[in-house]
Inverse folding.
């Protein structure tokens, strides 16, 4: 429950008063639980956050020969989502679909190192 509360604030940028109602907690409890999980994540950052490594000049994979010195690749796409009726205008794309724009960045081993949704 604490991690879900943390993710609501951190990943979805929800305000304290919104999370308070969603989780039936006081504002003080929301703040306390958020900071408890944040402290745990910060203590684990060396394990959770891996910095990308540059592709070595001696890398022999033919798919990467054009990308010497690059860290990886990025691409974006629209992903259809299910949202409440009241939120649909916010997520409507220019083609009329209800979706979010997702940008993904991966390293040379095809591991995601960054994902952004808009």
């Amino acid at each position: 429950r604490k991690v879900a509360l943390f993710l609501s604030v951190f990943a979805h940028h929800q305000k304290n008063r919104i999370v308070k109602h969603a989780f039936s907690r006081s504002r003080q409890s929301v703040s306390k639980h958020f900071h408890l999980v944040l402290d745990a994540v910060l203590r684990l950052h060396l394990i959770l956050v891996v910095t990308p490594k540059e592709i070595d000049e001696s890398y022999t994979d033919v798919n990467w020969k054009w990308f010497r010195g690059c860290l990886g690749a990025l691409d974006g796409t629209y992903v259809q989502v299910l949202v409440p009726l009241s939120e649909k205008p916010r997520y409507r794309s220019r083609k009329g679909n209800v979706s979010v724009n997702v940008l993904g960045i991966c390293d040379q081993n095809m591991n995601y190192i960054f994902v952004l949704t808009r």
About this structure: The mean pLDDT is 83. The chain has two domains: 2-48, 62-117. The beta strands are 72-80, 99-107, 112-117. Residues 27-43 form the longest helix (17 residues).
